[in-house]
Amino acid sequence: IIVFVTAYLNQIMFNSEYKLLSKNFIIKNKSHFENELRRTLYKANEWLEDTAFFTVSTKQDGIIKTRLEDIYYFEKIKGKKKVCMTHSKGYLFFVGQLNEIILQLSGDFVYCHKCYIVNTRNITGIEKPLRIVTFPSGHRCLYSEHYKKDLFACL
Q1: In 1-155, which residue ranges form alpha helices assigned H by DSSP?
Q2: CA 72 – CA 30 distance, rounded (Å)
Q3: Residue-level pLDDT at 80
Q4: How far is residue 131 from each of residues 23, 42, 87, 127, 137, measured CA to CA in Å?
Q5: pLDDT truncated to tens, each residue of the chain (155 aa)?
Q6: Which pLDDT value is given to residue 19?
Q7: How remote is the C-alpha of 55 from its chain's centroid?
Q8: Nearest-CA neighbor of 130 among 139, 119, 142, 118?
Q9: 40 vs 13: CA distance, rounded Å
Q10: CA distances from residue 148 to 109, 125, 133, 138, 153 in whole angstroms, order as listed
């Protein structure tokens, strides 16, 4: 979270030059500075509390946090103890098991197949004849008859 505090209005342009995501700009002014800073920090704290993450540790990349809302699905990699997490920014491979992962997720995530856990908030369509679940950017995964009832109940 970035909060700019400045006495100079021209410094606000710094944000657009460097493409930073700022939660607020505060112009130094004795009359309202303290209240404005307090309100901004309160809002930032609210935002952090409302944002849920899935955290995974990998040998290669260390600790990685991904917002739950950005995750499309988890896929068990056949024949290995690896999982592929497909999300809005790409893929992440890590060692894990779906039955342990599901315990860390919100109620928006359900099994749709023994090899897939999907985020129902990111489903863009269901292709019933082919038993395929579709997500943004063309991502797709299978669903099985066994898990169909649970999947459809969440949609």
Answers
A1: 13-18, 33-50, 98-101, 145-153
A2: 47
A3: 84
A4: 42, 45, 21, 6, 18
A5: 666 677 766 665 555 455 455 556 666 665 677 787 778 777 776 666 667 899 998 888 889 999 999 999 999 998 889 999 999 999 999 999 999 999 999 889 999 999 999 999 999 999 999 999 999 989 999 999 999 999 999 88
A6: 46
A7: 10
A8: 142
A9: 19
A10: 14, 14, 11, 21, 8
Sheet arrangement for strand 140-142: 125-127, 132-134, 140-142
Its pTM stands at 0.69
Nearest to 134 by CA among 118, 148, 154, 150: 118
Residue 2's pLDDT is 66
Exposed, middle or buried, 22 (CB in 10 Å: 0-12/13-18/19+)?
middle
CA pair distance 122, 68, nearest whole angstrom: 10
DSSP 8-state code for residue 97: -
Of the candidates 152, 142, 82, the one whose C-alpha atom is nearest the C-alpha of residue 117 is 142
Helix, strand and coil content of the chain, in percent to the nearest 5, comes to 35, 35, 30
Q: Collapsing DSSP states into helix, strand and coil, what is residue 101?
A: helix
Task: Provide the residue type at 6 as one letter.
Answer: T
